[in-house]
Amino acid sequence: MAPFFQVRAKLGPVIPDNSIPMLQLLSPDGTYGVPKEYAKYGEIIDSISEDTLLAMYRDMARIRRFDIEAIALQRQGQLGLWVPAIGQEGAQIGSGYGVGPNDHIFPSYREHGVALTHGVELMSILKMMRGVNHGGWNPEETRFHLYAIVLASQVLHAVGYAMGVKFDGKVGTGNLEEDLAVISYFGDGATAEGDISESLLFAAVNKAPIVFFIQNNQWAISSRVDTQTTVPLYTRGEGFGVPGLRIDGNDVLANYAATKYHMDQAREGAGPVLLEALTYRIGAHTTSDDPSKYRDEEEVEYWKARDPIQRFETFLRRQGINDDFFDEVKIAGDALAADIREQTFALGIPPLENIFNHVYSEEHPEIDRQKAWLKAYEEKMGSHE
After folding, report:
1. How far apart are CA 130 and CA 64, in angstroms?
2. Spans of all domains in the chain
3. 294 is catalytic
4. Could you say which of 64, 130, 281, 306 is catalytic?
C-alpha cells in the first residue's frame, strides 16, 4: 500500500530567467553600474554617504549572525520554532533603509532584517518564537507592525491602513513631517492567496499610498515558484492597475534605491506599486523543514554564489574599506550572538495569566470569569502535589 504522503520527485534546479528585465546595480561579482533605463535609481545611490553604506553592511552581517544563533538556540530546545532568513539580507536591509521616518511596515513572519532597521529589539522576536509573548514591540513606536502568521493577512491590513492614511489627508500634501506611506512584505507563495488579489484591487481603485514588496525566495515551503505562477510575479498587479518592477533581491543597493524611490512616490500621491525582489532562501523554510527533500544542491550552490553579503563586501573593499572594518563587524556579531544566547537561557516561564492581557482595551467580565476559573483550576491541581 502506498504511503499517504510521498515527497514529489525533484524537478531540477530553480534558476531565474535572465531575459526578464530586472533592476540590478551590483552584479554578483560586486561590480557597480547603472543601466541608462534605471538612471533615476542610480541618482538615489549617488546621494548615499559612506557611513550609510557601512551601516547597511553592519546590519546585514548582524542579522545573519543573529539568524545563525537563533537556529542553534531552536535546535537546543530554547525556541519552539525559528524562521530563517539567511540569503535574504540584501532585500530586507536594503528595503528597510528605503522606508521613510513616518512610514508604516506590515511584515510577514521572516522580516527580521527589516525589523532590525526600524528599532525592534531582536530579543522580542526570540521571545515570540519561544512563546513568551506574541510580539513584544509597540507598532506605533517602531512603525513595524506585528508578525503575521496567517499567510497574506498582513497585506489586507496594510492596504486598509494605507487607505485610512489617504482619507486622513496625510498623502501628497508636501508636509514631510506628516505625510506617510505604507509597505507590506510577503513571499512568492502568498501571491497565490486571494487576499493578495483583493489587496491589489482595493489599493488600485483607492490609489492607496502603498508599496507591495514580494520577497521571491523561489520556494513556498516545498512548492516551487513555477507552480505558483506562469508569469513573472512583478506583473501580477498589472490587471488591477498596479505597476510593477523586478529587483535583484541580493543587491542591497537596488533594493534600497527602488524602495526609497517608490515609497517617496507613494507618499506624494502616485498610488500603489508592486516590487518583486528576486532572492533565495538558503536554509529551511522553518526549523521544522528539511529542504533537501525537495530541492537540488546544485540550485543552492548557484544561489550561494550570489550571496548578498559577500557581494556587498566585495563592492566596499573596492571603495577602499579595509580589513579593520570587517574584523570589527565580525567581533560585534559574535558579541551579539553571545548576548542573545545568555538572555535566552535566562528567560523564565511567563505568568499564565498573561494570556488574558491585551485581549480587550478595558476590563471585560468574560475575561474576569476565565481568569477566576483558571486560578481555581491551578489551585486544585496544586493541591494534589
Report:
1. 19
2. 36-350, 352-385
3. yes
4. 281
Q: Which of 38, 261, 294, 311 is catalytic?
A: 294
Q: Is 380 left (phi over 0), alpha (psi -120 to 50) or beta?
A: alpha
Angle at 143 between CA 96 and CA 88, to 5 degrees: 25
Span 247-269, pLDDT tens digits:
999 999 999 999 999 999 999 99
Q: Is 281 a catalytic residue?
A: yes
CATH architecture under which domain 36-350 falls = 3-Layer(aba) Sandwich (3.40)
- pLDDT at residue 4 in the model: 34
**The three cell numbers locating residue 169:** 489627508
User: Catalytic: which of 285, 295, 306, 311?
Assistant: 285
pTM here is 0.93
377 catalytic, yes or no?
no
CA 194 to chain centre: 20
Nearest residue to 268 via CA among 164, 161, 185, 175: 175
Question: For 104-131, what is each residue's pLDDT tens digit?
Answer: 999 999 999 999 999 999 999 999 999 9
Instruction: Select from 113, 107, 100 the least CA-distant residue to 60.
Output: 113
